[in-house]
Amino acid sequence: MTFIKKHIPLALCFIFGVLTLGSYYVPNKASENYLEVMNKWENIVAGFAFLLGLFSLFFSHYNKIRRKVDGWGYSLFVFVGFLIMVIPAITSKGIQMDGATLTGLGWNYRFLFNALSGTMFSVLAFYIVSTAYRAFRIKSPQAGVLFAAAFILIVGKVPLGQIMWEKTLGWTHVGISQIVQWLMEVPVVAGRRGIMMGLAIGGIVTGLKIIFGIERQYMGKD
Amino acid sequence: MLKTRLNLSFFTVLFAASAVSAAVPASTKNIPTAPDLSGFAAADMPYDKGEAVLVSWPAGPADVPGAVYQVYASSGAAWLKAEEFPAEKKFAADFELPFWAWSHDKAKHAVQLELPQLFSDFKTGMEYSFKVKYVNGKVTAESAPVKAAPKADLFNLARLNNLVLLLVIIVVFFWTVSHAKRKGLFIRRIAGLDAIDEAIGRATEMGRPIFYSTGIGAMSSVPTIASTSILAEVAKKVAQYDTQLKVPHFDPIVMTVCKEVVKQAYMEMERLDSYRDDINFFVSQDQFSYAASVDGMIHREKPAACFFIGHFMAESLLLAEVGATTGAIQIAGTEQESQLPFFFTSCDYTLIGEELYAAGAYLSKEPMLQSTLKVQDFGKAFVMVSVITGSALVMLATWLKWPLVLKVISHIFKAY
User: Fold this and answer.
1) Which of B153, B164, B160 is nearest to B97 (CA)?
2) Identity of the residue in B253, B321, B337 whose CB atom sits nearest the CB atom of A130
3) The complex's ipTM?
4) Segments of chain B assigned to CATH 3.40.50.1220
5) Is the CB of B358 less than 8 angstroms away from the CB of A222?
């Protein structure tokens, strides 16, 4: 049993890990075909896993309704929403446009799904304001630096700020746009590159740990 | 009479000679000459998958403005015009290949021809004919046809620098793993990971759930794998304290893996009786539907702690900000540096950069896993030394005008 549950998955992980890594250095048609086959298999597994996810979703919400837990009414919307999309999809044969006219599925997709997704995305604007407010409360020297940088950027990007800068500090002959450009091109890029290099090294080491079977927690069993 | 004839002949010869001597330089100046295309050659394009051919010929004084080269290819039937370009362009030196894999010859024209774009019945290994034609007004020249067959290569020599670096990392990796110490390895404290105990303790005291999101990454992405490692350690502590854990998922495959991970954690803590199959549940594979659903749950259930660890995009702020309004302790970590500022401002602790990948080893306290943290440190040290040395050498080479040194440095540190 250990052989099936532990050794075979580890061997598969090693073989396919090394092959995928090697395909980066082998510019052969065979390595290209191999990657294509792997992608196809991933899509096939994802397709079956999606069914599993759907069952999990229904099971979880069905239990909430059955047990009448707090907010069970929201769970009803999962089923209602599912039917609202699936029934028109079946009747429209999965087609969104019939010539120039929208089918039931197309109408639902455009006027319900897209509208709701857009609404969620637009909520971000409000959250950015509240986050900015929280970030601008200077409680530490680091928060002070953050505030100073953000303040300069806001002044530099808003026309009113640019006018104020010109009126008050125009005599210095240093444009606010130059300062903003320097901030974005020097300290910001330096910080980002530092993080990216750390991430790249961490990613490589994690990949090696998985390929060589040192990291096994994702398998869920020892 | 004879004298007169001799004088006439002498002056005629003199006049003709002067005309000829004046005409020779005029012909080289005004009438364009045709290039010598006898050096035209075709060969398999190196380091490709066997679909391209490289044609080359020597550059010369005929490469003047207004002149063009036309490259033709044939699979046996008619000739197809594959390329046409000004004569003073496309040299071997223009190829973006490193010095150890390519001769950057400025005195040689070189053109890479992608044959599948020319021939619908293209086959790797089949012989094709090529020729080049020079056109400059009325002056034309054509090379003799040459044959070449594209073939697939087994190794991309241009990526040799990458392979050498990878091999060095693998050697260091195995060295550190084989020297894994049972005790005494110093690891810098990571505040975000130390706070996990505090967050779970708080949830236990308040009797509220813990939310753990692995983000919207697939199981094949490294941050998601790192997140499952952290989830395993969080689940162990949750099982130990008998707290409620909720893990909403974006990807069904990640959900399946996480189910196994959490179950194993409960089993290790001998609390399998507390394990429920609905700890991990699927929500949606749409980014904003997922965010809306998790936001709703966080808002209604008011968790004591929220973990956002994995791959996050625009939903990072949507999730973290709602969690912050409920007063939950929030710990976040992502590889997306564009989302880090949102986590910094909305969460109590954020795992930056490689901390995300070090977290699993840090929490597990397993010597072999912890020893791999050394590899990350060696890697960072290597990057620091490379950046400092490379910058100093580039500055020195620019100052002393050493183009060769500049070329070597830029090629060594470039990804091909």
Assistant:
1) B160
2) B321
3) 0.86
4) 185-365
5) no
CA distance A33 to chain B (A): 11
Cα→Cα distances B172→A4, B58, B308, B376, B385, Å:
31, 46, 32, 10, 17
**Could you report the per-residue pLDDT of B242-299, keeping only the tens digit for each?**
999 999 999 999 999 999 999 999 999 999 999 998 899 999 999 999 999 999 999 9
- B370 at interface of A, judged by CB pairs closer than 8 A: no
C-alpha span between A60 and B277 (Å, rounded) = 9
* Superfamily grouping for domain B41-148: Immunoglobulins (2.60.40.10)
Q: Provide CATH code, domain B185-365.
A: 3.40.50.1220
Q: To probe the interface with A, which of B288, B356, B385 has the most A CB atoms within 10 Å? A: B288
Same-domain check for residues A41 and A94:
no
pLDDT at B18: 52
Mean pLDDT of chain B: 89
A135 and chain B in contact, CB less than 8 A: yes
CB-based contact B317 A70, cutoff 8 Å: no
- Chain B CB contacts of A203 under 8 Å are 222, 335, 357
Task: Give the domain extent around A97.
Answer: 79-125
Residues carrying CATH 2.60.40.10, chain B: 41-148
Cα-based distances in Å from B84 to A82, B67, B70, B72: 57, 10, 4, 9
Pairing between β-strand B305-311 and β-strand B210-215 as defined by DSSP bridges:
parallel
pLDDT tens track for A100-149: 899 999 999 999 999 999 998 898 889 888 888 887 778 788 888 888 88
Residue of A nearest to B346 (CA): A131
Residue B38: is its pLDDT beyond 50?
A: yes
- Examine the pLDDT at A192 and tell me if it is beyond 80: yes
